[in-house]
Amino acid sequence: MLESKIKESFTTVEISLPDIIKLLLDLKDEFNIQNSDVDTIVKAVKLDNEKSKKQRDYLYNRIKEHINTCQSCLLYAQENHTHKVAGEGALNSPLVLIGEGPGFDEDKQGRPFVGRAGQLLTTILNKMDIRREKVYITNVIKCRPPQNRTPLQKEIKACSKNLELELSLIQPKVIIALGAVPLNYFKSGSSIMRERGQWINSRDYWIMPTFHPAYILRQHGKTLNKVKWLVWQDFNEAVAKAKEMCPEYDFSS
């Protein structure tokens, strides 16, 4: 009698699992993984071998599916919305770059940082001998706001489940926060002008706030040279920290 009541309780109550757990359970089924420890599975996925690469490809496709079905805020229904924009790059990278949200070009192509600001970001990485494909690049929100306005707090909150899913899988050591929106995502009430270049240690991440590439493009003359130098310093410090914490990871090949 008691046993039947217990069974009945499990069939009538819906248990909501975190998205990361659902994804890893699907991964276990897909690849017949016997281990059930989340940390062990995530560590195995990051290994530099063909099996782990296939698992990362599977997880990345599932992340994109998860983001593409998101209707947690009304940005997806705006006239200017064409594609949701998931992050892209290496799920095993110790370094993640986070911007604000998609712009016009990103919305049209469904890829992050492909417009003028994205081209500048790629140039910075190339000058540091870092292949863009060897880091993970994403945004706080995944849909373009109208007229590229700053995302509202309710939109950031609604979309946070998507960013958190990415971060839960990657478990980066270092994050470069590109601009005020990602900075405030991790440390609310912050000013990018005051806190740029100063390390923030939050949730086991080392976070380096710096100016968004779009901000660099809006500068001129001596101010432009100064801002470019500051961002260059911030990137070098962040990359050095990532290499220090994960010396085995190869950013250039």
Structure overview:
It catalyses: Hydrolyzes single-stranded DNA or mismatched double-stranded DNA and polynucleotides, releasing free uracil. This protein is an alpha/beta fold. The chain has a single domain, classed as Uracil-DNA glycosylase-like domain (Uracil-DNA Glycosylase, subunit E). The protein contains eleven helices and six strands. The protein has helices spanning 2-12, 19-31, 38-45, 50-68, 104-109, 116-127, 153-170, 180-186, 192-195, 213-217, 221-245; strands at residues 88-89, 95-99, 136-139, 174-178, 200-202, 205-210. A six-stranded mixed beta sheet has the order 1-3-2-4-6-5, sandwiched between helices. α2 crosses α4.
